[in-house]
Amino acid sequence: MRTDYRQAIVESEEELAQAERALRGQAGQARVRMLVLLKSGRATSLPKCAPLTGYSLRQLIRTPAVY
């Protein structure tokens, strides 16, 4: 069963963009970037999202969420 990330991620794209800007240069920024890509539909799954963030899938999943 596929996850509909647009519905599963409760924050709006604007809220996520603000969080990404606030975390610029910190470890949690990649995780928030992943959420932005999934929420917007530019990436449809975690494996497709990882290369867009510049991290491997394993690194992206292990990155702490700090926002």
Class based on secondary structure composition and strand pairing: mainly alpha
Percent range of helical residues: 55-70%
Beta-strand share of residues: under 5%
Global geometry? globular
Low-confidence stretches: none
What profile does the largest beta sheet have?
none
Strand/helix succession? HHHHH
Q: Please, how many helices?
A: 5
How many DSSP-defined strands?
0
Integer average pLDDT: 88
Distance between the termini: 28 Å
Radius of gyration: 11 Å
Provide key terms for this protein:
single chain; mainly alpha; 61% helix
Describe this structure in words.
With 67 residues, this protein is an all-alpha fold. The protein is built from 5 helices and no strands. Helix 2 packs antiparallel against helix 3 and helix 3 (28-40) crosses helix 4. The longest helix has 13 residues, at 28-40. The radius of gyration is 11 Å and the shape is globular. The relative contact order is 0.20.
